[in-house]
């Protein structure tokens, strides 16, 4: 469903441009869960940003069902993210002034797919049912993480992108959040690309790819 073809991405630095991705190709099938691993600084977030249409490559293409989304302008890519993708950032980007319920509904509302029953069900499954009136600051890290996942999934995306979604959590909480995320994506047939540097968590997804020196190492 989502195909990356020879993606090259570099960033400017004081000493000239530094190439982070040196021709990365990747395939994510409908409903597939894929772990993206690699050392810190190996370009995992950069690759996720290209695949999720948050940024565009220097060269190469990202095809969503055959359409080159990296060739689209900013507004079209924003619309695509709203309509097709769910994104969970490491810095969760919850809206501090909104309640848990409002945060959870936010993306779905923007996508025109808000469904109270879907949101309520997700909240229950994520163990947030009793917390819906709270503000994000009154939640634990694990709870905030679950709100971010709920917000992404409530919009019923075709692809969920998650950048180290359990990176700030202790091992036990990370496991529980992962269980839920995988359970929910598998139930709904949502494809998932998850960045993690935990081999243990990566092993729980359908497939793993490892990024090293700007290339995918099989
Ligand atoms: P990872 O997520 O695997 O830790 P990143 O994709 O965040 O790696 O970063 C890969 C490399 O690109 C790092 O050396 C980082 O410093 C650099 N980098 C990432 N984003 C930017 C940016 N916006 N501007 C300049 N350099 C960047
Ligand atoms: Mg990163």
How would you characterize the overall build of this protein?
- α3 runs parallel beside α5.
- This protein has a single domain (31-48, 76-216), classed as Rossmann fold, CATH 3.40.50.
- It is α/β, with parallel strands linked by helices and 218 residues long.
- The strands form 2 sheets. Strands 6-7-8-3-9-10 form a 6-stranded mixed sheet, sandwiched between helices.
- The protein has helices at residues 44-51, 74-84, 100-110, 116-125, 141-154, 171-188, 199-202; strands at 2-13, 16-28, 33-38, 59-64, 67-68, 85-88, 159-163, 191-195, 207-212, 215-217.
- The chain is globular and about 50 Å long.
Low-confidence parts: none
User: What percent of residues are in strands?
Assistant: 25-35%
Distance between the amino and carboxyl termini: 20 Å
Overall mean pLDDT: 94
Under CATH, the topology can be stated as Rossmann fold
Number of helices: 7
Helix/strand-derived category reads alpha/beta
Write the CATH architecture name: 3-Layer(aba) Sandwich
Spatial arrangement of strands, main beta sheet: 6-7-8-3-9-10
CATH class bucket: Alpha Beta
> Which hetero compounds are present in the coordinates?
adenosine-5'-diphosphate, magnesium ion
The count of DSSP E runs of length 2 or more, i.e. the number of strands, is: 10
Shape: globular
State the CATH superfamily name: P-loop containing nucleotide triphosphate hydrolases
Helical residues, percent:
25-40%
What sequence of helices (H) and strands (E) makes up the elements?
A: EEEHEEHEHHHEHEHEE
Largest sheet: 6 strands, mixed
Q: What is the number of independent domains? A: 1
């Amino acid at each position: 469903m989502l195909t990356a073809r020879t993606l090259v991405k570099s960033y400017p630095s004081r000493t000239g441009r530094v190439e982070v991705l040196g021709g990365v190709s990747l395939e994510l099938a409908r409903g597939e869960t894929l772990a993206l691993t690699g050392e810190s600084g190996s370009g995992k977030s950069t690759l996720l940003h290209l695949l999720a249409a948050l940024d565009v490559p220097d060269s190469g293409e990202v095809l969503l069902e055959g359409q080159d989304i990296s060739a689209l302008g900013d507004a079209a890519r924003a619309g695509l993210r709203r309509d097709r993708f769910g994104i969970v950032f490491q810095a969760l980007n919850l809206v501090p002034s909104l309640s848990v319920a409002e945060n959870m509904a936010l993306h779905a509302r923007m996508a025109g797919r808000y469904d109270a029953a879907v949101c309520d069900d997700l909240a229950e499954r994520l163990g947030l049912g009793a917390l819906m009136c709270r503000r994000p600051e009154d939640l634990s890290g694990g709870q905030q993480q679950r709100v971010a996942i709920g917000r992404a999934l409530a919009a019923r995306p075709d692809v969920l992108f998650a950048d180290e979604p359990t990176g700030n959590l202790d091992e036990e909480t990370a496991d529980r959040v992962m269980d839920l995320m995988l359970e929910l994506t598998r139930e709904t047939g949502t494809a998932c690309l998850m960045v993690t540097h935990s081999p243990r968590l990566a092993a729980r997804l359908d497939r793993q790819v490892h990024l090293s020196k700007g290339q995918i190492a099989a």
